[in-house]
Amino acid sequence: MNDLLFDAELDARQLSCPLPILRTKKSLAQMTAGQVLRVSATDKKSPDDFIAFCTQTGNELLSFTQQGDEFIFYLRRRADSI
User: Fold this and answer.
1) Quick check: 74 and 6 in contact, CB under 8 A?
2) Would you please indicate which residues are annotated as catalytic (active-site) residues?
3) Domains of the chain with bracketed CATH
């Protein structure tokens, strides 16, 4: 289990691409710089999608783990707006 602290949480389980990323983008846009978002997803391609998303947007992927069929991502909101 990951012990990272987070400011907001998003449940993107049972959603297929591109919905987990789109909802993550919307959630991050409502947060302030430096805040951490915890995302739960079950889409098998979500690790690749979240890595690419963070690379393209400048948000920081702090960690991701897999627990059974579920992926848990921790992202830190970047300094400027998305």
Assistant:
1) yes
2) 17
3) 8-76 (3.30.110.40)
